[in-house]
């Protein structure tokens, strides 16, 4: 049973990754045949186990916008836990009892209620007595089961969390995120309490169960540890936990301390709760704390060091974030020399000046922070210009917090996505330049516009010495850049990132304008509007882009960097204008499905990702397959043709 649940989670993650790659990155990490096979396997497991996860591709949770989050009183008050930083106090608490020890997750506590096997309600902890109803949002958490095998009323508590990796990624994508969210907990709290659950869905919130409150008619063997097993069997991810006694408490605390650094899920300590449910309940509670459980907080390791400089790091949102650079110190087993200060208000509160003696620590044993400034010489020399683009920088107030902003709308740091599109597969197809790498190159001044990417050899030694790079990575990158110098005009046009212009539109426009760069730059809105498949919106944005002298200059300079061989006319010349195709499964005569798509689009046809009533042909070498696309095509009467038949059609 456990193996099947584990397999179900693996399938959900794998299928979602494949769907995301295909739909958002135009990249295939598995064949359609393989996707359909795994999808069918997942459906079978969901039916067998009577469990469906919220993130499963077999369900489509509708998005909804609320005007406000309703409030609701908890059935029983949710008390805080008594805390200690002393292991000896935990040993005293344990006495002769066995207990369960687990991570104390640093997120937002949520109470879930299931009835008849389906999620009925989700409520935040709030003030412990009254919380906010966030059922709509809980349905789009990454891993909450929407359906479980148990049909009675189940009430449980758990923690909604956002992992460190997602926090770093999301924080860059949200306007003013640096001002609002200083840690994963704050971001999670804001995400869980959104009025629009489409926003929640994009934040990758996960839920980890830590307490079963009620499930009538189930024998839990008077054991908290068994309750956790049972919850896992219902499809919940439960917080990592171990059995512990006073004899093993030292080893268990050490085990968790040794593993916190590799934990992506934020944690600010440990929780002990007696395994014996009846014994724990018989103890009752004080006015503030339950007597059956105890929290352990990590004692922060603090080191003194000297502040060497404040480095100013621009972000995609326009905020220029201060980073403290100090004499390296050993903290929690690693060497640390940098800590984010977040904003000018915190700098002023700490009165940070170069040469000051500061105390540093790792928050939750993970994130370097400044604890105090012992010499407080005062804040000086806040930059007047952005360190990346040289544009004016100004101090602004965001949520009663002083921040430094770059005011230049064309600052390269604000346009990482544009550079990422330029190097993407359908554009210039340069491997080795992820968004993170592009960001580093831009911050270091290696890249100011697209043409600089073709001259990264000017910074060879600096790149080779960057973290994550070396001789081999650098040579691979240079090889990919040289290969990208031979390209097509549609790819080059698409790489510019003109609003509404995808690779298919770029091909249509270039073909209609005889692949002539001069005609492309000077095409009028009226001329473009006459091209079949190019509407007035696309014509307007395309003409507007090239009406800008800077854009024309950039395009000319890019043309000097690349070689565009004369495009061959499609052999046979069959015109596919107005014909819609869907391609699925593996191909034999073409290198990949992308080449089939390119051949169709060269001839004026269109390729989409899903079969609809507008589809004219589904290309699949396995014509008799029972895949979802084949089934849909048969339902709609869409002809399913093999690659051989498609090639005959071309000739």
Automatic annotation (TrEMBL):
EC number(s) per entry: 6.5.1.2
Positions with a binding annotation for Zn(2+): 386, 389, 406, 411
Protein residues bound to NAD(+): 80-81, 125, 159, 297
Parts forming coiled coils: 1-55
Catalytic reaction annotation: NAD(+) + (deoxyribonucleotide)n-3'-hydroxyl + 5'-phospho-(deoxyribonucleotide)m = (deoxyribonucleotide)n+m + AMP + beta-nicotinamide D-nucleotide
Entry keywords, A to Z: Coiled coil, DNA damage, DNA repair, DNA replication, Ligase, Magnesium, Manganese, Metal-binding, NAD, Zinc
Start and end residues of each BRCT domain: 571-651
MF-aspect GO terms: DNA binding; DNA ligase (NAD+) activity; metal ion binding
Family: Belongs to the NAD-dependent DNA ligase family. LigA subfamily.
InterPro entries on file: BRCT_dom (IPR001357), BRCT_dom_sf (IPR036420), DisA/LigA_HHH (IPR041663), DNA_ligase (IPR001679), DNAligase_adenylation (IPR013839), DNAligase_N (IPR013840), Hlx-hairpin-Hlx_DNA-bd_motif (IPR003583), NA-bd_OB-fold (IPR012340)
Residues of the active site: 104
Stated name of the protein: DNA ligase
GO biological process: DNA repair; DNA replication
Cofactor (UniProt): Mg(2+); Mn(2+)
Job of this protein: DNA ligase that catalyzes the formation of phosphodiester linkages between 5'-phosphoryl and 3'-hydroxyl groups in double-stranded DNA using NAD as a coenzyme and as the energy source for the reaction. It is essential for DNA replication and repair of damaged DNA.
Annotated source species: Candidatus Mediterraneibacter stercoravium
